[in-house]
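ESCALATION

Customer reports they have been waiting on this structure for their group meeting. Please prioritize. Original submission:
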Amino acid sequence: MREFWLCFVPIFVAVDVVGTMPIYLGMIEGIDEGKVGRILIQSVVTALAVALAFLFIGEAVFKLLGITFADFMVAGGMLLFVIAMNDIVGEKSNARLDPETLGAVPLGVPLIAGPAALATMLLCATEYGKPMAVLASTANILAAGIVLRMAKTFLRLMGKAGTRTFSKVANLVLAAIAVMMVRKGITVFLGR
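Update from on-call: job pushed to the front of the queue and completed.
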């Protein structure tokens, strides 16, 4: 049981569902409840599939293609930056995000199962074994789905104007996180 928590806690921090919640609220703004439920299911299924695939074949695929974790961090950071900037400066960025695929990209990957979470999962698999990493990763992604499901209550409490303002601020933070991911990726690359 101790090993589970030693895996669960760092993955929980890396997934950062609390930080993802305001971004999620901004993305689903104006989308009907039925579609929001499908988006949420799609995000959890996508994040789980990517995480499990990454745990079992990620390192081998990266080696085969010559991709490093630094490359992965830079690419994920750039994608998040574009998403954040579209919402900050765009009139209505949700119009550019297709509700049919929103759950897969960008919500499932890279917001729930992003470079930091995937790297942490891989490190846990190395240290505590793949079965424990799979269990902790699955628990974290399901927990993220539950937290995001409750985000609508948060939306009702804040109202439309409050949510929109919060979303803009959250996307500014997301842009900063994206820059940090790119910086860390470049730092890792230059350190080699």
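Sent to customer with the following note: Residues 17 and 147 are 7 Å apart (CA to CA).
Escalation resolved.
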